[in-house]
């Protein structure tokens, strides 16, 4: 009986540990979000920013998104532009520095993004 309880408990704990972590920011309450190296260590994160259309989503990626230590976006990050319902799109970028093959120390979305987008999700992959 004790072994069955211990086995069930360990299975439950394993299942809980497999659930991905998700952070969501409501920009009506906050103008920026960041997470530090301790939180990101050992994980790959995906940031989803929703826009009204593809052009505006690309604009936010090119001009208003600061990733990591002020690094240039070109060649270091992978962007996926994903169609959403009703013509909206989201840009998904994997927060990994491919040149150094390391997880970035932080991800920050600045104030300019607030005017164009209403929701930010940081989700562990």
Write the layout of secondary structure elements.
Layout: H1 2-18, E1 22-26, H2 37-40, E2 45-51, H3 54-64, E3 65-67, E4 78-83, E5 89-94, E6 96-97, E7 102-103, E8 107-109, H4 111-116, E9 119-124
Major sheet characteristics: 5 strands, antiparallel
Count of helical regions: 4
**Number of self-contained structural domains:** 1
Computed Rg = 18 Å
Outline the structure in words.
This protein has one domain. It is an alpha+beta fold and 125 residues long. It has four helices and nine strands, in the order H-E-H-E-H-E-E-E-E-E-E-H-E. Strand 4 and strand 5 form a beta hairpin.
Q: What are the salient characteristics of this protein?
A:
32% strand; disordered C terminus; alpha+beta; two-stranded antiparallel sheet; 4 helices; globular; 5-stranded antiparallel beta sheet; 9 strands; 30% helix; 125 residues
Question: Summary?
Answer:
By secondary structure, the protein is of the alpha+beta class. It has four helices and nine strands; from the N terminus they run H-E-H-E-H-E-E-E-E-E-E-H-E. It has helices at 2-18, 37-40, 54-64, 111-116, and strands at 22-26, 45-51, 65-67, 78-83, 89-94, 96-97, 102-103, 107-109, 119-124.
